[in-house]
């Protein structure tokens, strides 16, 4: 799963010397917005990004120093540098960044998040930052879901929980908010950041051939949880498709019928023949999925449409929800280009939701 916090868990199991940098706010023209994160060790960047270039270079130095001192920090960067100075950022904006070098304090929270996401439960990560100075801050995190309450600061519990519930209901990817809250007579001052963390949308690919393999690679890059189904073990394996989270070898129609699907599921049918395509499509059409796409010529698609409607497997309205021929019309010819056209259509449908 492409999640920076789960990557922290993976890194922390073998190397405790890591720091997480998170953009908490920005104004003007900046390379990344609030919620963008990057994980560093003493050698440099491991995963993620906070904008690259000069900003990431500066943060790498700050993160390495924070790791050595075990001091978390909260910095502001002015990106209105002199264009003649190659060492200055010239985006014209400003960013604030939290560098957490004491991630051991949040491991329990990240484990809760991992369990929730494994069970397809969305939540909100609350980050509370107590500022003693720019170089020294204390970071506390809380994990909130619909079904569980975090032990939040008593005076602010209701306000934070209300905002978190709203974010869970709206379910917007990359939703990152700062709450202007204050505790009575509090020293030092506190900042509260809320980030929606959602289960990855599920991409089910029927067919482990060349297009299926290329699409699985793009799907992983685009933050889908990828499942590939095929009845040919010589194709449906992790050596052939290393980017799939799950690979199922079995009858395509039977497997597609049994695999869990919901409104956060995207199905792409690129199997090797008309019969397999039809069997894969039957359990999907009319089921309220986020997206259904099927490869094929216009002649093949029209013939299948007639079969489905005449046999009562789909109504005309339900058939219109099938994107066939699949992909955006970008003039694709090669396998890679076809996979790109399909991936672009997946992103388009996901963004519209």
Describe the SSE topology.
Blueprint: H1 4-12, E1 18-27, E2 37-41, E3 44-48, H2 53-69, E4 73-78, E5 94-100, H3 107-118, E6 123-131, E7 137-145, H4 157-170, E8 176-179, E9 189-197, E10 202-206, H5 210-221, E11 225-230, E12 246-249, H6 252-258, E13 265-269, H7 274-281, E14 291-294, H8 298-310, H9 316-319, E15 322-323, H10 335-352
Parallel strand pairs: 10-11, 10-13, 11-12, 13-14, 14-15
Antiparallel strand pairs: 1-2, 1-5, 2-3, 4-5, 6-7, 6-9, 8-9
Helix pairs in contact: 1-3, 5-10, 6-7
What does this molecule look like?
The protein has helices at 4-12, 53-69, 107-118, 157-170, 210-221, 252-258, 274-281, 298-310, 316-319, 335-352; strands at residues 18-27, 37-41, 44-48, 73-78, 94-100, 123-131, 137-145, 176-179, 189-197, 202-206, 225-230, 246-249, 265-269, 291-294, 322-323. With 353 residues, the protein is an alpha/beta fold. It folds into 3 domains: 4-103, no CATH class; 105-197, no CATH class; 202-352, Rossmann fold. A hairpin with a 2-residue loop joins strand 2 (37-41) and strand 3. Residues 82-90 have low confidence and may be disordered.
Q: Which key terms come to mind for this protein?
A:
6-stranded parallel sheet, 353 residues, 15 strands, 5-stranded antiparallel sheet, elongated, single chain, Rossmann fold, alpha/beta
């Amino acid at each position: 799963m492409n999640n920076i916090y789960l990557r922290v868990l993976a890194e922390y199991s073998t190397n405790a010397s890591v720091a997480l940098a998170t953009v908490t706010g920005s104004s003007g023209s900046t390379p990344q917005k609030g919620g963008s994160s990057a994980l560093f060790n003493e050698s440099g960047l491991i995963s993620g990004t906070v904008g690259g270039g000069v900003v990431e270079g500066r943060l790498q130095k700050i993160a390495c120093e924070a790791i050595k001192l075990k001091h978390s920090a909260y910095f502001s960067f002015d990106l209105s540098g002199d264009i003649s100075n190659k060492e200055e950022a010239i985006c014209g904006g400003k960013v604030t960044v939290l560098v957490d070098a004491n991630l051991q304090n949040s491991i329990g929270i990240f484990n809760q998040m991992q369990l929730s996401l494994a069970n397809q439960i969305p939540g909100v990560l609350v980050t509370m930052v107590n500022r003693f100075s720019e170089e020294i801050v204390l970071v506390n995190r809380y994990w909130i879901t619909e079904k569980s309450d975090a032990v939040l600061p008593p005076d602010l519990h209701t306000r934070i929980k209300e905002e978190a519930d709203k974010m869970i209901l709206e379910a917007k990817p990359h939703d990152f908010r700062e709450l202007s809250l204050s505790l009575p007579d509090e020293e030092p001052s506190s900042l509260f950041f809320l980030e929606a963390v959602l289960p990855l949308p599920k991409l089910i690919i029927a067919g482990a051939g060349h297009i299926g393999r290329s699409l699985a690679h793009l799907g992983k890059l685009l933050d889908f949880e990828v499942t590939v189904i095929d009845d040919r073990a010589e194709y449906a394996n992790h050596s052939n498709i290393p980017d799939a989270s799950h690979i199922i070898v079995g009858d395509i129609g039977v497997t597609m019928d049994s695999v869990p699907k919901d409104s956060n599921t995207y199905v792409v049918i690129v199997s090797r023949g008309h019969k397999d395509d039809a069997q894969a499509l039957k359990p999907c059409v009319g089921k309220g999925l986020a997206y259904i796409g099927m490869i094929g010529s216009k002649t093949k698609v029209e013939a299948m449409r007639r079969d489905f409607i005449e046999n009562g497997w789909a109504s005309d309205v339900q058939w219109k929800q099938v994107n066939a021929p699949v992909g955006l019309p970008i003039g694709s010819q090669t396998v890679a280009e076809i996979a790109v056209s399909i991936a672009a259509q997946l992103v388009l449908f996901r963004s519209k939701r």
